[in-house]
Design a protein that fits this description.
Elements (H helix, E strand, L loop, with lengths): L9 E10 L2 E10 L2 E7 L2 E8 L4 H11 L8 E9 L2 E8 L1 H14 L9 H8 L13 E2 L2 H8 L5 H6 L3 E7 L3 E8 L2 H14 L8 E4 L5 H10 L3 E4 L5 H10 L2 E7 L2 E6 L4 E2 L20
Parallel strand pairs: 3-6, 7-14, 10-11, 11-12
Antiparallel strand pairs: 1-2, 3-4, 5-6, 8-9, 8-10, 12-13
């Protein structure tokens, strides 16, 4: 039997590059983007465009952060190429499959359109259980250091300039785990799955991301049990509101040695919880570089 072709996260493509007034023929590695279907006991739960790497981590993390099944209920994982896409099958205990089937029936619309209408909105805006107090204490200087260390741990982005990363920072040790994907949500799911499969508690470290912070990333971090999220770009207002309510420490705009701390500063050492007052806003929002 012929072994299946390896799933490559990047593929070389020919290009004509304009340099110093002349055309040069060359190749450039480009990030691969594949349709990845995640199924639970042969029932598809979602199809995402994702990088075809670390797919066992992806499916495990997706099941965890989307609240599909509990980690202990996963009994097996299979990855299989299917035409132009890939299927990742999770096999779970019968009780978990029955609970998931009941959930799908409850969320199905009257014309069988799946997640739709007000119920899907409620699912997307699901309330977050408050995180327990405590968690890691992180020196403020460790945040710029972690962001500076990320590029060296991003081989896919280094080759293609087209991938996000989610890393796990352990205080006193630095970045100990990084996952990449073309999608920021996928990268975080892969990180969650890798931590779970490696028996590493997310509550003991810091999630570090290359992206902006949207509400769903806060939801996923809270579902993981992570207490601190650091990101390179800005959060949305709703993400800050959700992080505040969930008890998640949120630092963002972490670039060039500086960062903004939005809520729950008690886990960041040397962070003043009473900063200078913010000036009254102008009538028009200023441009933020």
């Amino acid at each position: 039997m012929t072994a299946p072709a390896p799933l490559l996260p990047a593929e070389a493509r020919a290009r004509a590059s304009f340099r110093a007034g002349r055309w040069v023929a060359a190749e450039r590695p480009l990030a691969a983007e594949k349709a990845v279907a995640i199924s639970v006991n042969a029932v598809t739960q979602g199809v995402m465009m994702a990088s075809p790497a670390d797919l066992e981590d992806f499916a495990t993390g997706f099941a965890l952060t989307e609240g599909l099944v509990a980690p202990a209920e996963i009994e097996g994982i299979e990855v299989e190429a299917r035409g132009a896409g890939i299927e990742v099958r999770l096999w779970v205990a019968a009780a978990a499959a029955a609970r998931l089937a009941a959930r799908r029936r409850r969320l199905a619309g009257p014309v069988g359109c799946g997640l739709c209408g007000i119920e899907s909105i409620e699912a997307a805006l699901r309330p977050l259980a408050p995180l327990p107090p405590g968690g890691p204490s992180l020196a403020a200087a460790a945040i710029p250091a972690a962001m500076a260390a990320l590029p060296a741990a991003q081989p896919l982005h280094g080759a293609t300039r087209a991938a996000h990363a989610a890393g796990f920072l352990r205080p006193g040790e630095g970045l100990v785990l990084v996952r990449e994907d073309i999608g920021r949500h996928n990268a975080l799911d892969k990180l969650a799955g890798a931590l779970l499969r490696g028996n590493t508690d997310p509550a003991g470290g810091v999630v570090v991301m290359t992206s902006r912070v949207s509400l769903d990333l806060v939801q996923k971090c809270a579902a993981m049990g992570a207490r601190i999220l650091v990101a390179a770009a800005a959060p949305t207002a709703d993400a800050v509101t959700a992080a505040e309510a969930a008890g998640l420490t949120l630092a963002a705009n972490a670039r060039g040695g500086i960062f903004d701390l939005f809520c729950h500063p008690d886990r960041i050492a040397a962070a003043d919880p009473r900063p200078d007052p913010v000036p009254a806003p102008a009538e028009a929002l200023p441009h933020v570089p």
